[in-house]
Amino acid sequence: MKIYNAVIYTMTDKGIIDRGFVSVENGKISEVSSGYPDNISVEDIDAEGSILLPGFIDAHTHLGILENGLDFEGDDCNEASDPFTPQMRAIDGVNPLDFCFEEARRSGVTAVMTSPGSANACGGSMLVMKTMGVCADDMAIATAGIKFALGENPKNVYNNRDEAPKTRMATAAIIREGLYKAKRYLSDCETADDDTELPDYDAKCESLIPLLKGDMKAHFHCHRADDICTAIRIAKEFHLDAVIVHGTEAHLIPEIIKRADIPVICGPTLCDRCKPEMKNLTINNPAILKKNGIQTAICTDHTVIPVQYLSTCAALAVKGGMSTEDALYSITMGASKILGTEKHIGCIAKGMDADLQLYRKNPLDLTEDPWLVMIDGKECF
Predict the structure, then answer these.
(1) 28-65 tens-digit pLDDT
(2) Other CB atoms within 10 A of residue 193 CB
(3) Which class in CATH covers the domain with range 56-345?
(4) Which of 52, 110, 164, 287 pairs as cysteine with 6 (C-beta 3.0–4.6 A)?
(5) Backbone angles phi, psi at 227, to 5 degrees
């Protein structure tokens, strides 16, 4: 199958192909070329000059783990019975039949990272998944990393229960304690001469081993600048491949983040300053980070902002000083690189998953919706 007569935003070094076509075979992109294909069949799609983009990627959500229209019954986001729960897995809490997946698809969001929440100092492992399917195992692309949280959220949850962490110091200490235990556990496993010397199985430590080996990323929920600095401090201490999530005050310390070479997933921005640590919220944040050479993605933090408004959040970043090209990149290949899925999704190139969408006008125009959305080569809208 081919999509032809399209303006192709490749999100690669090839840039924009003014008139070209894309061939799809077995759910993958098999060819990207300028001009017209030699042969056109009845199954091929005439884009009629529309803009062809890779599917949008929302780099931080709680899609499917916080269900549409439900309270406690559909809230599987925070296992707030213990402040340190790396053994929790988002894939076990996702309901793929939640209606919001359809809303995501209709708005061109073909993949999301869905995550445990930020009630705990460590919430568990996060999942990058497609937005079409009925079983999370079949929709999964990768385990994105482990979710950590600093700042007000853990303080508020456990202060109300008169338990630690009640301070930022305690939150950081709990994270360090868990990571040091996992580090020792890993060392004991590696130096054991036989099975009889292996330490007793520890689900928490086992979950953190890929993180300590550099095979998985550490996503730190941070809003305030001082919390971002704490995340950087912990990441350096344990040699973690870290990502800052939200980064509301990142624009106040871009030189520090740049020096640490840590990417930032910005958002939500289409919201009020709902808590004290968000008092410096500004739509200029993504533009400032990008101008300082920091890898930047934009997210909705669904359900804080509904996932279907991801492109609107990108448009706000343009209003805040980001170029349209950079804003689109931040919800396609830029997001994919931060999530570690750049070999599968995020751009239009040979061998990539055929997650594609067509727009008749500017994709960031508030009145625009895609007229075709495809996931793994299958039309889903």
Answers:
(1) 999 999 999 999 999 999 999 999 999 999 999 999 99
(2) 7
(3) alpha beta
(4) 52
(5) -70, -35
